[in-house]
Automatic annotation (TrEMBL), chain A:
Keyword entries, A-Z: FAD, Flavoprotein, Oxidoreductase
Keyword Methyltransferase: no
Molecular-function annotations in GO: FAD binding; oxidoreductase activity
Keyword check for Flavoprotein: yes
Pfam families per the UniProt record, alphabetical: FAD-oxidase_C, FAD_binding_4
Domain of life: Bacteria
Protein name, as recorded: FAD-binding oxidoreductase
Boundaries of every FAD-binding PCMH-type domain copy: 42-220
Annotated organism of origin: Micromonospora sicca
Cofactor field: FAD
InterPro entries: FAD-bd_oxidored_4_C (IPR004113), FAD-bd_PCMH (IPR016166), FAD-bd_PCMH-like_sf (IPR036318), FAD-bd_PCMH_sub2 (IPR016169), FAD-linked_Oxase-like_C (IPR016164), FAD-linked_OxidoTrans_Type4 (IPR051914), Oxid_FAD_bind_N (IPR006094), Vanillyl_alc_oxidase_C-sub2 (IPR016171)
């Protein structure tokens, strides 16, 4: 497909009519600002950018795209790590960051109603004075948007106990790929009919654009206690994690870093973790004070039983923040020890951790590519950081091989190719390793129901678009099979 | 085609399946299926329907009892080729729920499609076949100190039935509902194609979450044959703290007080029988020391005459109706729960109908029961009033079950947001409308 200049001019005019001239970008330099999301190795300059101010404008933009047969991609803060918000060269990037009002905080309903551009952390900040917070806490929570969280079904360090975005969104208003405004769910639970809300959350912008989100608020815990345990090896830290889970404890978070990740974090933020550690665990418990008190002693004992050589207990919020500082800065920190790196995101059954880590070590040694490991140990979500130097010939390719081999490991152990970053552009090609052609075909039945013309974020999630066939009474859109050469890989 | 020719075709389809799919567990033959050809005592895979084989009063012509996903797929492929209308049945505990199917030829009974495929205790997950009884599953998991934290309000139900009807009970307050616990699903489509979504790990965002789509879909999108669930440890201690009050609304207000405190209850229930009076009960789960301390805190919060017990109060987690009664699910924004309780009671008085209310005040879900002997016109009037009462608190009133005389007079589902999209989804998954046609919202 190629959009002619005439088409583009007409589309730009339609968008300006829909949202006003100041909310449409068509200048090449301005458009370049939006050429990538958080996964910067994919870059595509969009044909146009629209920044709707509200749901009505968002719907008008989508309708203009539908009328022109132009694909559109929604983008929140652009922090996604799978290229889910990578623009389409012939399409419109619809940026929701101007829709950033917290419409209501209703502690008595345990709900907040927000626009999609609202920053994740802002929801908790608004709810905190009332004694409540918004539980999903992706590492990017200071900048990522709720709309993006909904699209990606974002997780975070505390989802072991509290679940993911999908468990905390009770309603959305969305603009469908036809440009209709539809409400799903709301303040009350269990709306009658199909759980389209559950299908929509995590659909990566392929089923429509959320324009208003009703989220569940969670009571701020009475007590939070955090410990940091240092071990000689990841095997020991893994055994301690297993022992904690086996004891029936459900911590708010269990996070692990290996020696290389620790050294990167030390270099970057001087987190002061115990010297000589082959692995550190951060274990956080929260809840009613009597429960936390009873279980915290047990967790501490289980760490010692599994040969933790040093255990630190956070005395207050400041020390807790220090424990977390090393962990939360780990991705960026590897930039200090490597010119380039890939942040991988895969999931394994937690009990396979020792075996998978050994295999990652072997892969690393075989290819001469260092891998730093950071992970949500409680739920088996690995974030291997594959380090390389693009200036050295062959390293980029070898790093990508290692990164891909790690996903194969995850699938072979019954896990997933992504635990929280999403499939997006980056991992569509890996989907057939996890799902059969029939599985993917069936998922796309849902897509065809929402978006028969294939205009909403085409080329993401699925390696091969499904032909939706004719739907009586509907306009014929651009054939999905014509979508090709979507992105250049730099 | 003559009836016995159809039977032969279905039988041939059931006999000709041995496919396996190495990538997914569902292809493994179950123990029952492994002995299929050598086991003449096992249930026939396909038989003519008997008198008991009716769905909400609509008789079927044939009953199939597949023993694994492959056999179920072969049967549904044959049913598609023969243009048979199909309804799925698990334990049969909710067959009188929802609307009767417009058309029914074949019941696919899942009770032979049973058994735990995998229980990875260290990973807190299990994979089970859809026809597995919830009680049998609970017993199997308890041996490892674990549970599928999904309360079954009706005894005798299966895993698949609970998923298909999105059944839930008191502990949804802490653990969520089927949609939150289901991490992977295998389903057979209307055209007999087998599809999977999700997986065996709790954290997984690869692909669309079809598990949520089929949860609560009443078998109108496909047959769920296997489910992977997230598990929880069985709590070391549990206690119930109950306070009796004069009326339902007062119980609702007390529940609000408990929500705002730091008790983190596993359940927070209100029970207001038709005869008057009401009780609010808090279930606390955790460590022995923790629960003991929280019981004291709960009792302080609820009032001096609150009582603590190790055992659940009578009727706990059961619907407040019996077979043949009208049963509804009422939902509300949390702040609206006391008002809904008061309005529902007032509406019942106005219409001269006894109304029992019971449910999870802590999450905004109540169940309401009206005796089957009540005059249908009055019940229909009450349903309208309850629908208005729930709408006023941002909720819905759905009639889950009703005697035919009531069912004919009411809209079971009420207004449904997104219905046009739902029809499109149904059209894609079941273009010929052969799966439980007419049983779901909007005649889907």
């Amino acid at each position: 497909m190629s959009t002619t200049t005439t088409d583009l001019t007409a589309l730009a005019a339609a968008l300006r009519a829909a949202v006003g001239a100041d909310r449409v970008l068509s200048d090449r330099q301005e458009l370049r600002t939006y050429e990538c999301d958080g996964l910067a190795q994919y870059k595509v300059v969009p044909a146009l950018v629209a920044l709707p101010a509200d749901a009505a404008q968002c719907a008008a933009v989508v309708r203009a795209c539908v009328a022109a047969g132009a694909p559109f991609v929604a983008r929140g803060s652009g922090t996604g790590l799978s290229g889910g918000a990578l623009p389409h060269a012939d399409g419109v990037l619809i940026v929701t960051s101007q829709m950033r009002d917290i419409l209501e905080v209703a502690p008595s309903d345990e709900r907040a109603v927000v626009q999609p551009g609202v920053i994740n952390l802002a929801v908790s900040r608004a709810a905190n004075p009332h004694g409540w917070y918004y539980a999903p806490d992706p590492s990017s929570q200071q900048i990522c948007s709720i709309g993006g969280n909904v699209a990606e079904n974002s997780g975070g360090a505390h989802c072991l106990k509290y679940g993911f975005t999908t468990n905390h969104v009770t309603g959305v208003e969305l603009v469908t790929p036809d440009g209709d405004r539809v409400r799903l769910g709301g303040r009350a639970p269990d709306a009658p009919g199909y759980d389209l809300l559950g299908a929509f959350v995590g659909s990566e912008g392929t089923l429509g654009i959320a324009t208003e989100v009703t989220v569940r608020l969670t009571r701020l815990p009475e007590s939070v206690r955090t410990l940091l345990a240092a071990f000689d090896s990841t095997d020991q830290a893994g055994a301690a994690t297993s022992a904690i889970i086996a004891a029936g404890v459900v911590p708010a978070a269990v996070e692990m870093m290996d020696a290389l990740a620790i050294s990167a974090a030390e270099a970057a933020v001087h987190c002061g973790y115990p010297p000589g550690a082959g692995a550190v665990l951060i274990v956080e418990l929260d809840g009613p004070e009597p429960e936390v008190a009873a279980q915290f002693d047990q967790v501490e004992r289980l760490c010692r039983d599994n040969r933790a050589f040093e255990i630190r207990i956070a005395a207050d919020d400041v020390e807790r923040a220090l424990f977390w500082k090393g962990r939360k800065s780990a991705f960026a920190a590897v930039g200090r020890i490597s010119p380039d790196y890939i942040v991988q995101d895969g999931v394994i059954p937690r009990t396979a951790l020792p075996e998978v880590l050994r295999r990652i070590g072997e892969l690393s040694a075989e290819r001469g590519i260092r891998v730093a490991n950071v992970f949500h140990a409680g739920d088996g979500n690995l974030h291997p950081l594959v380090l390389f130097d693009a200036a050295v010939e062959g390293q980029t390719e070898r790093a990508e091989e290692v990164s891909g081999a790690i996903l194969d490991l995850c699938v072979r152990h019954g896990g997933s190719i992504t635990g929280e970053h999403g499939v997006g552009m980056d991992k569509a090609k890996y989907m057939p390793r996890m799902f059969t052609a029939d599985d993917l075909d069936t998922m796309q039945l849902l897509r065809c129901a929402f978006d028969p013309a294939g205009l909403a974020n085409p080329g993401k999630v699925f390696p091969t678009p499904r032909l939706c066939g004719e739907v009586p009474g509907r306009r014929k859109g651009v054939h999905p099979a014509q979508e090709a050469g979507l992105a250049e890989v730099f | 085609m003559p009836a016995d020719a159809i039977l032969d075709r279905l039988r041939a389809a059931a006999d000709g399946t041995t496919t396996t799919d190495g990538r997914h567990t569902d292809g493994l033959p179950s123990q029952a299926a492994a002995g299929r050809t050598d086991n003449p005592d096992g249930p026939e895979p396909v038989r003519p329907a008997g008198e008991q084989d009716a769905i909400a009063g609509v008789p079927a012509r044939y009953v199939a009892m597949p023993r694994d996903t492959a056999q179920a797929a072969a049967l549904l492929r044959a049913a598609a080729a023969l243009d048979l209308a199909v309804t799925f049945r698990g334990g049969g505990t909710k067959q009188d729920w929802a609307s009767p199917p417009r058309r029914l030829d074949l019941i696919v009974d899942t009770t032979a499609l049973a058994g735990v495929v995998e229980h990875a205790a260290g990973d807190l997950i299990t994979v089970v076949r859809a026809g597995t009884g919830l009680d049998a599953l609970a017993a199997a998991l308890a041996a490892a100190g674990q549970q599928l934290a999904l309360d079954a309000p009706l005894p005798g139900g299966t895993v698949g039935g609970a998923v298909a009807t999105n059944a839930s009970g008191p502990r949804r307050m802490l653990y969520g509902t089927a949609r939150d616990l289901l991490i992977g699903v295998t389903l057979v489509r209307a055209d007999g194609v087998v599809a999977h979504a999700g997986g065996k790990v709790v954290k997984n965002v690869a692909g669309y979450d079809l598990g949520k789509l089929v949860t609560g879909a009443y078998g109108t999108l496909g047959l769920v044959t296997e489910c992977a669930f997230r598990l929880h440890p069985l709590p070391a201690a549990a206690a119930y703290v109950t306070r009796r009050v004069d009326d339902a609304a007062e119980a609702g207000r007390l529940a609000g007080t408990v929500r705002a405190a730091q008790l983190v209850p596993a359940a927070l229930e209100v029970d207001a029988p038709a005869g008057g009076g009401a009780a609010v009960t808090v279930l606390l789960e955790g460590t022995p020391a923790g629960v003991a301390a929280r019981v004291e805190a709960a009792a302080r919060l609820l009032g001096t005459d609150a009582t603590a017990a190790d055992q659940a109060p009578e009727g706990w987690g059961r619907y407040p109706w019996r077979d043949g009664d009208t049963g509804l699910k009422l939902t509300a924004a949390l702040s609206g729960v006391p008002r809904l309780l008061a309005d529902a009671r007032a509406a019942a008085d106005r219409h001269g109908v006894p109304l029992a209310l019971r449910g999870s005040a802590g999450v905004g879900v109540l169940h309401a029961g009206v005796p089957g002997t009540a005059e249908p016109e009055r019940v229909a009037g009450l349903v309208d009033a309850l629908r208005a009462a729930t709408a006023a608190v941002a909720g819905h009133a759905v009639v889950l079950t009703a005697p035919p005389t009531v069912r004919d007079r009411v809209d079971l589902w009420g207004p449904v947001d997104g219905l046009a999209l739902m029809r499109r989804v149904k059209q894609r998954f079941d273009p010929d409308a052969r799966l439980a046609p007419g049983r779901f919202v909007g005649g889907i």
